[in-house]
Amino acid sequence: MSDVPLYQLKEVQKSHGAAFTLHIPTLTIERGEVIGLLGPTGAGKSTLLGLLAGLESPDTGEVRFDGGSLNSADLPLKTIRRITLVHQRPLLLAGTVRFNVEYGLRLRNAKGISQIVDAMLDRLGLLKLASQSARTLSGGQTQLVALARALVIEPDILLLDEPTANLDPAHVALVEDTIQERQRDRGMSIVWATHNLFQARRVATRTGLLLNGQLAEFAPSTEFFERPADPRTADFVQGRMIY
Amino acid sequence: MPFVDVEFWSVVWLSLRVSGTAVLVAALLGIPCGVWLGLSRSGGKRWLSALIHTGMALPPVVIGLVLYIMLSRSGPLAFLGWLFTPEAMILAQTLLTLPFVVGITMSFVASVPAELSLQLRSLGASPWQVRWSILREARTGVVLAVAAAFGRSISEVGAVLIVGGNIQGQTRVLTTAIVVETSKGDFGMALTLGGALLLLALLVNLAILRLHGGRWPT
Fold first, then answer.
1. ipTM for the complex?
2. Given B113, B123, B126, which is nearest A103 (Cβ)?
3. Is B216 part of any domain?
4. A94/chain B closest Cα distance in angstroms
């Protein structure tokens, strides 16, 4: 296994209009880590995930992935296929639930698609919906299908943008278990953006707090939740409104 | 009615051949252009869209006239030797239907959320796979574009009359035959030809409907 960190961000800035700029002076993510990313709406979590996915390029600075730059507009397909982002508002293709979950595997001409998909649908309680049109699903079911279509392709890096926002507690637990099981089995690296403080505490090895486009704190989860260095993190962890 | 027995079928066949070929060529050229324009975020897209929409309103006689000049003995395309041939009629109808195919495909592709391209990319789709998937999402529009193009093509009279010359047994199609029979006062034959034209349009649309899995674009 390479000694080079999985991700290295240096002086990265990304603006969306005049009102918002994400600024990350430095950030390193190692292989096999589960990073929790906390912060209010509009803090820059989705922008950071877009940069880590190679879907956006920074205005300044550099995002390095596995020793190479992720800034290029024409990233090799091989690199793109190692990273999968589950979007906050997933869009499914016209067709059945099964068609959507198979999508990434068919792009890769994978073998045994049917068995892989059946196993994942069963794991997430979606098997009975397999033949249903994806456009008729509820928000929570759509989120589960989006997660299933990402997990079946077993990416090296899984980026999750509030993947349980529309789910009830039982499904939240199911999703967390499924992702953690995959992470343990395959050594997947995960960056998990969430509004849910308790979820970050449950799943993440390191946790960061993004406020107004800046990382207020980024530390091992035990330190982050029990001995936060930044007073804003302390307030946030103790449930005080800081935004 | 000997005309119905012999010449009638050659006119029907030529109508189908000219319009079918023109729509096929327009689809092969226009669908990729429509997808590209629908996905493009460049500033020039607005101008191109305006141009395409103007093309949709272009009078067939104007296309016929311009093509006639270009294909005539002193025109730049004279070397093709296509004037008063079915090839000239196919060219005219291709030019007539191309803006329809491009414009309608473009509109439907543009109506697919832009965010979907990013989501497909993050699932590992190559740029071509993204375009293909978006086209699949917009397939209702593509079916509509082809149907509209065929409708325009099969019912068109001005351009094919000018560049085809309406030569009996050679370049006479259903629409131009109707003109001839009407001018001769043979309204019975003109109406028969009109019925055949409607039936042909219906059959082709039913075939398109079948290709679309039995669902008509809404």
1. 0.90
2. B123
3. no
4. 6
Going by pLDDT thresholds of 50, 70 and 90, the confidence category of residue A1 is low
8 A C-beta contact, residue A139 and residue A108:
no
Residue B15 resides in a domain = yes
Q: Which residues contact A136 (CB under 8 A, 6 or more apart)?
A: none
Flag if A85 and B129 touch (Cβ within 8 Å).
Answer: no
**Count of the separate structural domains present in chain B:** 1
Which domain range does residue B147 map to? 2-211
Chain B contact present for A85, CB below 8 A: yes
E-strand ranges in chain B read none
Q: Determine phi and psi for B138, rounding to 5 degrees.
A: -95, 20
**Quick count: other Cβ atoms within 10 Å of Cβ B21?**
18
Task: Judge whether B102 lies within some domain.
Answer: yes
* C-alpha distance from B123 to closest chain A C-alpha (Å): 6
The neighbour count for residue A34, using CB atoms within 10 Å, is: 22
pLDDT along chain B (218 residues), means of 10: 70 95 97 92 83 91 96 94 96 96 94 93 94 93 92 94 93 94 93 93 85 62
Q: Is B75 inside any structural domain?
A: yes
> What CATH number should be reported for the domain whose range is A7-237?
3.40.50.300
- Partner B contacted by A53 (CB < 8 A): yes
- Backbone angles phi and psi of A198, in degrees to 5: -70, -35
User: For residue range A184-232, what is the model confidence (pLDDT) as tens digits?
Assistant: 998 999 999 998 899 999 999 999 999 999 999 999 999 999 999 999 9
Tokens of A47: 């922008």
Of B186, B182, B179, B149, which is closest to residue B162 (Cα–Cα)? B179
Question: Does residue A108 sit at the B interface (CB-CB below 8 Å)?
Answer: yes
Size of interface A-B (CB pairs under 8 A): 49
Within 8 A by CB and 6+ apart from A15, the residues are: A21, A22, A59
